[in-house]
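Task: complex structure prediction.
Instruction: return structure tokens for all chains below.
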Amino acid sequence: MKKLLIGLAAALAVTVSVPAAFAQDKTKACFLYIGSKTDGGWTQAHDIGRQMVDTELGDKVETVFVENVPEGPDAERAIERLARSGCAIIFTTSFGFMDQTVAVAAKFPDVKFEHATGYKTAPNLAVYNSRFYEGRYIQGQIAAKMSKVGVAGYIASFPIPEVVMGINAFVLGAQTVNPDFKLKVVWANTWFDAGKEADAAKVLIDQGVDIITQHTDSTGPMQVAAERGIMAFGQASDMIAAGPKTQLTAIVDTWGPYYVKRIKAVMDGSWKSENIWDGLKDGILTMAPYTNMPDDVKAMAMETEAKIKSGELKPFTGPIMKQDGTEWLKAGESADDGVLSGLNFYVAGVDDKLPQ
Amino acid sequence: MRIELVKRPQHSKLFSVLSPFIALALTLVAGAIMFALLGKNPFQALFFYFVDPLRELWSLHELAIKAAPLILIAVGLSICYLSNNWNIGAEGQFIIGGIVGSILPVVYPGIQGPLVLPLMLLMGMLGGAAYASIPALLKTRFNTNEILTSLMLVYVAQLFLDWLVRGPWRNPEGNNFPETRRFHADAILPELFPADGRANWGIVFAILAGILAWLFITRTLKGFEVRVIGSSPRAGRFAGFSSKKMVFFAFMVSGALAGLAGISEVSGAIGQLRPSISPGYGFAAIIVAFLGRLNPLGIIAAGFLLALTYLGGEAAQISLGISDKVARVFQGMLLFFVLGCDTLIHYRIRFVGLARQEGQPAGAPKAAAPAAEGA
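Output:
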């Protein structure tokens, strides 16, 4: 078998031109995806960002991606292969790629690495994240206005601070409209599994919620909501196609401008390792059009969005009580980023026990 | 008109040997056609797919990491299949091996020292063997179909692991992520040549297992018993061999090897337990076992080849932007052509016209279980 392969190699060596030869003057920007680039959610949002890099920077850049990479040993191999294939910068776009990115970054000091939603940095490893919770706060307000029963359902992925933060922000937003608003949570324990997510949506609807939102990445819940005739929010990408009469709005991850900025920085040598946590005002997070709702709800949502952008409104500002009844934030006090990124408790109003 | 498969009176020795190579060649040709249809230069694509990953040392290490569990499991399966026991649940035995082997570093992290790793490997093998003995017991005791029971036990094992890492074994300092604590240094399977790449002792176990299994099957009485009972249970009974004992033996050997693969993967490449510790190695190993024609030495080569299709899939994605699904298509084509070639060695195709069909009794042989026959 080996002989056969070596023979094949010899035969092909003549005909194969090595692409690296003509790619010398281009900057190679590479992306590692946990899902399929057409998943309709998280990974697709990153891929739209990659395509924006292609259109904005044109022939100065060559973008490459590897999709459907499982977390674990396979991820480390894929990152290393990218690093060795001449990538100048590598974006690893799942929290679970963290340790593998750190390991490969240590081996390739000349390659820049950027890890989405993680917290471990190095001189050649930056982390970037988006303040998804700002959008979820707006969604909570809309939900409280639109819900007849005053209970929404939340399909959550893993009980890490990032997700707990989103749940809390949703409830806090809802409580500004209806102080008695309740939220039920189902843990799908996956980032992407259309079947499981759809099942979770059915469970929630059977428990009587009339609005669902999700921190998982497929359009499964949106489709179930559409079938059952209730309203829902999209996640990561605009999911309006999956629920034209169902989606109220979606938090849309808009990574493109960020990717363009960082790749340009690599080109002109100004790239630095940073810990970036941008939000609505920076345009890394945008809201899909507010649809399927009365004009007054839409006006309220747009006003809240404007206030968050201007910095007038910070979702995590007291008075806020924890779920167990103790006080978390005093009136007027805002949680700082350090506390937020380690959040491991619910605020009052969440009808669920946080898995510990 | 219809098409029949007719058993050949005798099959060609030459083509029996050539069969896997013909299958490989056909796969390459079909792959080239597929790439051409995708608008890629087929030679360039095949080059990136099958040659590029072999050009660098680190990548060979990755190949060894990927091939080790496939070979270990497939070697065990070959003994099982040769004895006519159809263990489809190696994936489950792999997982249970990983779990049982991880008891020491996860539950008793305080126990350290050079004995920890050998104990873990041993416990992994015992775990896998014990789990494989369940379908064996059900088969000998209640005459259940081992294909079904062993397959269903895969899902039990997967869900059990899932529950463990989300529940009792979850890392207390892991930000609530479903994974166990990372293994301490004494519980990590060492790398062979840390300066060059990540390959660990797993590949040594795999190749050793292949060689030992080959010696066992060809050189020992027990190995003879495996083959006799496999090809003719009746003859086996006349020779005084117990087919019940053989069921247990075959299942437990293949379970032990799958368990060893599991704990090697967990303590080597991963370093902790996670909700999913195998991207389907237990099922891919079935392809490897047949690609290697159930010969342990052939399986070593077949394991490397299948591992190459995973790595090649990535290389082709990076270099040519080809979808990752292509790797799966390649694996499917490979198995298809291997089974197809094997079938045609033992059978020939006959086109039967309507006129002749009437004059013939309906006793034409069916093409059932060509895989089993091919063995």
